[in-house]
Automatic annotation (TrEMBL):
<dbReference type="InterPro" id="IPR004942">
    <property type="entry name" value="Roadblock/LAMTOR2_dom"/>
</dbReference>
<feature type="domain" description="Roadblock/LAMTOR2">
    <location>
        <begin position="21"/>
        <end position="125"/>
    </location>
</feature>
<dbReference type="Pfam" id="PF03259">
    <property type="entry name" value="Robl_LC7"/>
</dbReference>
<dbReference type="InterPro" id="IPR053141">
    <property type="entry name" value="Mycobact_SerProt_Inhib_Rv3364c"/>
</dbReference>
<protein>
    <recommendedName>
        <fullName>Roadblock/LAMTOR2 domain-containing protein</fullName>
    </recommendedName>
</protein>
Length: 165
């Protein structure tokens, strides 16, 4: 199932916040195999996702049942946990900063990429996705979004996510 591009955003948001929503929409729309996308702040809070209102009336994944299993809200939790785990591992191994984490499973893949401010971009993809294409487009997103993700913008995005729920 194709991820849902963000909808309902833009009203009352700054141009930088609208630009980030547009970048996320492009990532979702342009890259085949993406199921859901989440941007998580360094403290684990969801800033942007590919299904912000959860009102599409469809299951996020085949067999998801009544809950949003596999949705970008769940992805945000996973991304935050993976980010903490990999950063801790890198510190213990004197490995420097973590740039990207990838998990491949029988039924899909999860990619996590660091954004310059400590935030994380997470993508849940189909099992037949082209991992190189997804990683490339994630890197483009990070390159474009990293310099504008200021503390003020993160606060604005958090507030917009809270009001969308």
């Amino acid at each position: 199932m194709k991820a849902q591009a963000p909808t309902g955003y833009g009203r009352g948001l700054s141009s930088q916040a609208r630009n980030l929503h547009w970048l996320l929409s492009n990532l979702v729309d342009e890259v085949p195999g993406i199921r859901s996308v989440a941007v998580v702040s360094s403290d684990g809070l969801l800033l942007l996702n590919s299904d912000p209102d959860g009102a599409d009336g469809q299951e996020a994944l085949p067999g998801a049942g009544d809950g949003p299993r596999g949705s970008s809200a769940d992805l945000a939790t996973i991304v935050s946990g993976l980010g903490s785990l990999t950063q801790g591992a890198a510190k213990l191994m004197d490995g420097g900063a973590v740039k990207q984490t990838m998990i491949t499973m029988d039924e899909g893949s999860v990619f996590v990429m660091s954004i310059s401010d400590g935030s994380l971009l997470g993508v849940h993809a189909t099992p037949d996705c082209d991992m190189n294409v997804i990683a490339y487009h994630m890197a483009l997103f990070v390159g474009r979004a990293g310099h504008v993700l200021t503390p003020e913008l993160r606060s604005e995005l958090r507030k917009s996510m809270e009001s969308a729920q």
